[in-house]
Write a structure and sequence with these properties.
Blueprint lengths: L4 E6 L9 H9 L5 E5 L10 E6 L6 E8 L4 E4 L5 E12 L8 E2 H4 L16 E3 L4 H13 L2
Parallel strand pairs: 1-3
Antiparallel strand pairs: 1-8, 2-6, 3-4, 4-6, 4-7, 5-6
Length: 145
């Protein structure tokens, strides 16, 4: 059985994420990069796979991946509101401003079309039957970009 996976959203119109380039550099140098992220699902567990989707701008799609590294906790969002959050340990971070990302066009091919890749809420479940294909497409995309 496949472990659950979750899709998180980043909307740069609402939050700029000023540390993104710094985090990318740290990851390239083999450092652990962990960020807290808002999470709609109450079913997340440490070890679950996480993907980040860029939303709210013209270029949309997946630009990061990693693993959940904490239980769900209540914490302040970037806007100062209390929300359910989790920690994500990243294994891949791309800069959507300067690098290609796994576009919606590619995510709409084949069975992957059955998932909403631009969620309104961050931390939604990815359909379990799609995870093997998503992992394969993501791996192929990273190897060829």
């Amino acid at each position: 059985m496949t472990e659950p996976a979750f899709l998180f959203a980043w909307n740069p119109v609402k939050y700029q994420w000023p540390e993104l380039r710094e985090r990318m550099t740290a990851l390239k140098h083999g450092e652990r990069v962990t960020e807290d992220w808002s999470c709609a699902s109450k079913k997340v567990k440490p070890g679950n796979r996480a993907f980040l989707s860029l939303v709210g701008v013209a270029q949309r799609g997946i630009f990061a991946s990693g693993y959940i590294s904490s239980e769900l906790f209540l914490g302040k969002s970037h806007r100062g509101k209390m929300a359910n959050r989790v920690m994500i340990d990243f294994d891949t971070l791309l800069d959507p401003n300067t690098q290609p990302i796994l576009s919606l066009d590619l995510l709409r091919l084949g069975a992957l079309d059955k998932q909403l890749w631009t969620p309104q809420a961050s931390g939604i479940s990815i359909k379990p039957e799609l995870l093997p294909e998503l992992e394969a497409v993501w791996k192929d995309f990273l190897a060829n970009s």
